[in-house]
Amino acid sequence: MQAALDDHYERHPDARPNLGDLAVAAAELDGHPLAHEPGRIRQAAAEIVESHPDAGPDDVVLWAEARAHPAA
Amino acid sequence: MSQVVLLDNEAVRALRNPTHPRHRRVVAHAQVVAQRKRRAATIEVAVPSAVRVEAGWDRTASAWAFPNRLRITDIPLDSVHANTAASIRNRTGVPVADAHLGAVIQSEPADRITVVTSDPDDMRLVAGHRQIIVVAI
User: Fold this and answer.
1) Which residues of A touch B112 (CB under 8 A)?
2) Range of the domain at A22
3) How many Cα atoms sit within 13 Å of A49 on the Cβ side?
4) pTM for this one?
């Protein structure tokens, strides 16, 4: 499946989702409450790549959740 | 937890066509599924056969090469699904493809069902009492 996606990205670079796109998609697939706030998720993606360049979409959703509900 | 991601007609069309305005969005969902599969998550993408017909998805046609390679499972319109789909269609008046989607939703054994669709209201309608996650594209 990944090979098909990689080939597709090579032929159609604009089709490649960025980390923010993937994090929004991950939240949507899971019905996460933050799926309704894609801007917040994209902001978290922009922040997390600065310190964790290998972060994945689920990491971003967790980070966005932590930012949305900081510990008291 | 097992999860199935079902595609409706518009999601299938968007996946096939790189110029479709929702193409990148649906590809993002496929990419997340691929990444989760690599981590051994029990997740699959599936399409009811009536949806595939409505979208014009001919697996022997080169135009569908990309979706064909994504290991998207066909869910056939068997006798049981046909009965349920007919009942849904009689009750709601939705198109045949959406009625088949509803029949699949109502019989799907996965713990979590996500539907990627351009028509969230119809998906909730055909889902009946089954809880689903709706991704509106």
Assistant:
1) 30-31
2) 17-68
3) 11
4) 0.95
